[in-house]
Amino acid sequence: MKLKSTQDPTKEASSILSGALKDKSGPVLFLTSGGSAFKVLEQLDEEAFGRQLAFTMVDERFSMDEKINNFLQLKQTEFFKKLIKAGGLFFDSTPAKGESIASLTQRFDSF
């Protein structure tokens, strides 16, 4: 593995990830965490977006509260808005009102 030193790790990570996404010729399932990972997503090159890219959260919290649920937070980012405009796909992990964890997981079974 090649180690790299940088003054701006967020920008460097975004650049590497953008390059990797552009190099893929087929579909990509992008699993992301919340929190500081959103800073990396915000700086991705929009040329990497499109119908070949589908994403969802890997560290989701079962809540309808925007302060807790990562997907609800992600929907507020410019990254999300740009990805949707480019035709990107997503698996919404936000629970519906009255939905149980079991029924939420059944939504994912259909994919």
How many strands appear in the DSSP assignment?
Answer: 3
User: Which residue ranges are poorly predicted, with pLDDT under 50 across at least 5 consecutive positions?
Assistant: none
Largest sheet: number of strands, sense, barrel closure = 3 strands, parallel
Secondary-structure element pattern, one letter each: HEHEHHEH
Side-by-side strand order of the widest sheet: 1-2-3
Report the principal-axis shape. globular
Arithmetic mean of pLDDT: 86
Number of helices: 5
Q: Which helices and strands appear, and what pairs or packs with what?
A:
Elements: H1 9-23, E1 28-32, H2 37-42, E2 53-57, H3 70-74, H4 78-85, E3 89-90, H5 101-109
Parallel strand pairs: 1-2, 2-3
Keywords:
111 residues; alpha/beta; three-stranded parallel sheet
3D architecture notes:
There is one protein chain. 39% of the residues lie in helices and 11% in strands. The protein is α/β, with parallel strands linked by helices. Helix 2 (37-42) links the parallel strand 1 (28-32) and strand 2. The N and C termini lie far apart (34 Å).
Condensed summary:
This protein has 111 residues and is an alpha/beta fold.
